Amino acid sequence: MYPLYWTTSKGGIFMRYSYQFKRKAIELFYRGEWPKTPNGVTTDTFHRLIRDWVKLEQHHGPDINKNRGTNKYWTPEEKYSLVCQVLSGQGLRTVAIVAGINSGQLYQWVHKYKTLGYNGLINKPKGRPPKDCKMKVPKTISPRKLKESEYEELIRLRAEIAYIKAENEVIKKEIALREEKEAARLKAKKQRLLKRSANKAIN
């Protein structure tokens, strides 16, 4: 069981693992075992990577480890939403796993946002620029585009709303659990009182 291939870089050896390798590593993990650590990577880093594969599979199914979000087109708004989650205190690796992307990719987005702002998240157009067209185009009235600050505020508010909704669900579950425990306590107390009354009547 070996990686599909690896390439050397300034930082050392960059591993790229085959899907078969990942599946075998995940199967061993569920059996409480670890595959042999490849050369060029520390055991802790390798084990952390396998745990990430397991979490990705649990969230998105086994196919996610075949091609992790590389073909998906991420809009600037989607990137900014993930960046906001990281900047609000959520773990970068956790956010990346839930989104189904590589944590290195998310780190780049966070870094670009910190250095360039929202513009750093805008995808650059690919291919040659279109030639000037001299044909007359009828004028159309289009809605005003949001400013960069307005985009950021809109997506930040959406992220806050999603976070508040999740918190409310947790609070509801806690309240329901407390009510259930209180009902059980009162029921047990009532049973004890009835038992005492019955014992007194017998005596």
* Amount of helix: 55-70%
- What's the helix-strand series? EEHHHHHH
Distance between the ends: 78 Å
Total number of helical segments?
A: 6
Low-confidence spans: 5-13
Number of individual domains: 2
Radius of gyration: 27 Å
Keywords: Coiled coil
Domain Insertion element IS150 protein InsJ-like helix-turn-helix: 85-129
InterPro entries: Homeodomain-like_sf, InsJ-like_HTH, IS150/IS1296_orfA-like
Organism: Veillonella dispar ATCC 17748
Could you explain the architecture of this structure?
InterPro entries: Homeodomain-like_sf, InsJ-like_HTH, IS150/IS1296_orfA-like. It comes from Veillonella dispar ATCC 17748. The protein has 203 residues and is mainly alpha-helical. It has two domains: 1-66; 72-124 and 146-203, no CATH class. The protein has six helices and two strands. The chain has helices spanning 19-30, 43-60, 76-87, 92-99, 103-116, 148-202, and strands at residues 5-9, 12-16. The termini are far apart. Residues 5-13 have low confidence and may be disordered.
What is the gist of this entry?
This protein has 203 residues and is mainly alpha-helical. The protein has helices at residues 19-30, 43-60, 76-87, 92-99, 103-116, 148-202; strands at 5-9, 12-16.
Topology:
Blueprint: E1 5-9, E2 12-16, H1 19-30, H2 43-60, H3 76-87, H4 92-99, H5 103-116, H6 148-202
Antiparallel strand pairs: 1-2
